[in-house]
Amino acid sequence: MSTAPLPFRCEDIHVAIGDKPVVKGVSLAIKAGEIHALMGPNGSGKSTLANALMGHPAYTITSGHVYVGGEDVTAAAPHERARKGMFLAFQYPIAVPGVTVANFLRAAVKSRTPDEAAMKGFRKTLMAEFERLEIDPAFATRYVNDGFSGGEKKRLEILQMAVLRPQIALLDETDSGLDIDALQIVSRGINHVVGDQMGVLLVTHYQRILNYVKPHVVHVFMEGRIVRSGGPELAAMLEEKGYEWIENEVKQAAPVV
Hints:
257 residues; 28% strand; 12 strands
């Protein structure tokens, strides 16, 4: 039996924005090769959780712990978490005019793996990933997300994930704003990258991306908490029934004060 530490786990995470509690006690454990889907209605706190786990300064973890590869990174800065093997794909990736995709990725890889021998194969690796992810190699000379379509931005996020090979990838509504063709391309990219070494937490409103990226575990998130966990069939039930049936069950199960 393997005794290797999990790529990612968090214990009883509470998050506040200013003085407002938003995430109210979340615990997760994700194994290498596992995809966990985090589903829930708008405003439930899903994106807040993802950003807080990555160390975004606008979100304060008021209690609980975050572990990457068995190491407690709760107090670490975002760049330190990235070096340990965390990755966050943003819902709305920002443009970085003046910085080419190739230079951006080279700097990111060098920061994570400062081995000069490894850097010698960077261009070959990058070109191979362009081909596998169905991205025009001309993107290498374009400025990061500058003038990119929504689909191009999301594909570039997956390219970053492919090149950096994190232990845990937090994908915050990667399907947001994608048409069906772009969704299928991005989904194929995710499936290609994950393999058996990386854990994934995929944050989404809808079941549609889960038709292409098959989760091992589905969590339903409401009012800052995970209220239900199950297999892929849970996502199908949400697609059929919406969230109201779970909201009603949660209310009925709540203790009388």
